[in-house]
Amino acid sequence: METAEKEVRQLSDIKQQLKKEQRQLFIKRFFSNKLMVTGSVTMLFLLLVTLFGPFLVSQDPYEMVVQDRLLNPSSEHLLGTDEFGRDLLSRIVHGSKVTMGVGLLVAAIASFSGMVIGLYASYYRILDHILMRICDGLMSIPAILLAIALMAALGPNTRNVIIALSIVFTPHIARVIRSAALVVREQTYIEAMEAQGASATRIIWLHIMPNTVSPLVVQATFIFAEAIIVEAALSFLGAGVPAPDPSWGNILYDGKLVIFNAWWMTVFPGIMIVLSVLGLNLLGDGLRDLIDPHTNHGKK
């Protein structure tokens, strides 16, 4: 009896030691991955700006002071003012909630819908032919043109931007998930589950889906970045988030009219867009290398 209890304690200690070593290895790999660290720090900064920035800036992003229009950056207005005298720092900070929120929601919706489409297309051959041809048709149209067409049909507001961009990027996720799921679909244990009478739903969601999470997370970060770019482009063209609500794209739209007189209206929101897209792409590359070290060709 004592021997059995001793063996159980030893097994428990071994499991705890293995978990500890796995955590240490993960942390070591994380901090040794420069792409991952740089992308994480960049996105952490933008997350802090998005969540806490609106509480730190004192100016109202909608308040117009005509006599203060197009003021240079100063101690009173750190990033200057726009053509209506509104504080640019306040509008950029509040605009980050719109732009980052749209990107995050689009990535989440497109990831879920694309995962569902990809999983069922990989399991049912008939659905594969139908759904993938629809995805091919949508992917054949440039993202910005398809988004503009959808916005023209739906009308310019934030909700419709999210719906349009989700439709645009869902096929990209579906293709990635389908490719990963097809590899799992052909495994012997899936055939064994089918022979035992397991339902298709059980096989898809309990056995195939978990093996597609890694590529899904990586692809979602890239979709997040692309959604920010396309949303900014739509707002810049006047087909996205409508004024006076601030977003980085419509701030750029306002700035293009006075670009030679007020450079700060295009430079500062442009920097925020570049930082967010660069951070997300670095994070995505870092996640890919962290999940599958064999894809990290840059290291020897």
3D architecture notes:
With 300 residues, this protein is mainly alpha-helical. It has a single domain, classed as Orthogonal Bundle (MetI-like fold). Helices cover 74% and strands 0% of the residues. The longest helix is centred in the middle third of the chain and has 36 residues, at 88-123. The radius of gyration is 24 Å and the shape is flat. The termini are far apart.
Order of helices and strands: HHHHHHHHHHH
Kindly estimate the percentage of residues that lie in beta strands according to DSSP.
under 5%
Biggest sheet architecture: none
The structural class is mainly alpha
Query: What name does the CATH topology carry?
Result: MetI-like fold
Question: What's the SSE blueprint?
Answer:
Layout: H1 2-32, H2 34-56, H3 88-123, H4 125-139, H5 143-154, H6 158-185, H7 188-195, H8 200-208, H9 213-236, H10 248-256, H11 264-291
Helix pairs in contact: 2-3, 2-11, 3-4, 3-6, 3-9, 3-11, 4-6, 5-6, 6-9, 9-10, 9-11, 10-11
